[in-house]
Design brief:
Distance between the termini: 97 Å
Strand content: 5-15%
Structural class: alpha/beta
Helix content: 55-70%
Largest sheet: 7 strands, parallel
CATH class of one domain: Alpha Beta
Number of helices: 12
Length: 291
């Protein structure tokens, strides 16, 4: 091999080494585009940016869909429509018949019976959403758009009621340790998913002209009391808040006791109104809206 061939071989080896070095750098995580690098984007010190994006994305999409105002519907995810509630009760009774001395089976029966009684709230939520959506359609579908947490139960019923009337509705779903999927009645382009409860709550209230709270659990209470606190402390303008299910709410929380103890004022108790039916709730809301 002459000197020229040796030189060419050395050059080829050097070029290959450079090519491999270039490829190594291009494949390194540091070379990825920042917005296309999940490992980087999901770092703890990128939390502030993720929070910002969770705010911006749903906000832009709602603007693009001309959503100007909403009506928030909160309520229990575990309160089923009557048919499904009755199926749950039948299953519980079957379990008890096989093991009549089981305290667990007896407890399930009591819960299933309560779920059956509370199934009326599913129907009331659906009916109320129908009424609100008809009003929304009188405003081109831009105002008074129903928004829920996007899950099952009372939330599903509200989205379903809007769909019954051919109207759009919003679902603000949340990532949870257990499986959480959006209900099938949300308008597809208005179905959002959140990782952060705080940003989700901000979206519930940004465009809200009213809030309806059906019976529910910790999540419903959290969202209701945050709203009441924001209005009480004048962090946001007041709007009508309706609690549906007088017996449920009165037994769950003794609001008068709070006032008697000086924990809240008499005026604070007037920030919300209790009713029993969708018709009464809509009447109260529409009076405030002047409709």
């Amino acid at each position: 091999m002459d000197k020229k061939d040796v030189k060419n071989n050395l050059l080829s080896i050097e070029e290959e080494q450079l090519r491999l070095a270039r490829k190594e750098r291009m494949n390194h995580p540091s070379y990825r585009l920042a917005y296309d690098d999940d490992d980087f984007f999901l770092r703890e010190d990128m939390r502030a940016l993720r929070l910002q994006l969770e705010w911006v994305k749903p906000d832009i999409i709602q603007k693009e869909n001309n959503i100007e105002s909403t009506v928030v519907v909160f309520g229990g995810a575990r309160f089923k429509e009557k048919k499904k509630a009755e199926q749950q009760l039948l299953k519980a009774r079957d379990e008890l018949s096989k093991n009549p001395d089981s305290e667990e089976s007896q407890r399930k029966i009591k819960i299933a019976e309560s779920v059956c009684r509370n199934s009326r709230f599913y129907e009331e939520s659906r009916l109320l959403a129908q009424k609100i959506t008809r009003l929304s359609q009188q405003h081109g579908g831009k105002e008074f758009v129903v928004v829920t947490g996007g899950g099952p139960g009372v939330m599903e019923a509200a989205n379903r009621g809007a769909a019954d009337e051919g109207g759009q509705s919003i679902g603000l779903n949340i990532v949870l340790p257990f499986e959480q999927e959006p209900n099938p009645y949300i308008t597809p382009e208005l179905c959002f998913q959140f990782d952060y409860f705080a940003i989700r709550k901000m979206h519930f209230l940004k465009r809200a002209k009213g809030l309806v709270a059906f019976p529910g659990g910790f999540g419903t209470l959290d969202e209701l009391f945050e709203t009441l606190t924001l209005i009480q402390t004048k962090k946001m303008q007041p709007f009508p808040i309706v609690l549906i299910g007088k017996e449920y709410w009165s037994r769950l929380i003794d609001f008068d006791f709070l006032a008697e103890q000086g924990a809240v004022s008499e005026a604070d108790i007037k920030l919300f109104h209790m009713v029993d039916t969708a018709g009464d709730a809509y009447e109260h809301l529409s009076k405030h809206w002047g409709k």
